[in-house]
Amino acid sequence: MTHDSEGQSIADFVATLPLNTQAEFLEVHAWSESMRCESDRGAALVSAAYLEECLERLIRCSLVESGKHADCLFESGAPFASFSAKIRFAFAIGLINSGLRHTLDMIRLIRNEFAHSFDSLSFDTPLIASRCRELKLAVPGYSFGSLSMRERFELASGLAFGWFQGSTRRVRPLERVWYSGQEISELSETERTAFIDRVKRVQSGAEPPLRSWFV
Fold this sequence. Notes:
Blueprint: H1 10-15, H2 19-36, H3 40-62, H4 68-74, H5 83-92, H6 98-115, H7 126-133, H8 149-170, H9 181-186, H10 189-204
C-alpha cells in the first residue's frame, strides 16, 4: 500500500493527516511494506497471526481482568484459544462489526488453505481467489478497484490491522457489576461509595447497566 502522489513523500503525506490518524497510517504503511518481502504463503500466515494477536489484545483490553485471570481463556484448549473462537466472541459482544468479522473469517480460511496444503498455492488459486473476492475493508474511503488478489488481501488485512491499532487505544474495560462482601470490604471508602452509587443509579434506571466499549 504505497502513496506516490506527484512525488509526495510518505512523511509529507502523513503531515497532512489529522493528528489522531497519523500513527495508525504509519503502522498500516509499515505493515504493508513488511508484507512485500513475503511469499504468498508467508503473507497469508503472517497476516493471520498478527491479526489474531491484535484481536486477542482487543478482547483482553475489554475484560474486567486482563492479567492472569484472563490468561486461562486463551491458552491451548481454552474457550478462546482458536482464531475462529476469538472472532465469534468479539462479534457477539460488539467489539467488531459484521464486516470485520466476515473479513477476519476469510483471512482465517485463506490461512488454513495455505497452512494445510503441500501444493504450490498462490492468491490466484481459484478457491483462495474466491475468498479474496469476499474480503471487506475495515476503513471507509478505500476501494479495491482493479487490485490483484494478493493486493486485495494485503489491503484488507492492512486496514484491519490499522483499525485494531486505533481501537485498542480507545477501548476500555467492562466495569465490575458485582463484588462479594469480602471484596467490597477491601475497596477504599471512595471506591466503595462510587460502586454503591453506581449500582443504585442502574437499579433506578438512571444509567444503563454497561458503558459503551469505546471512549
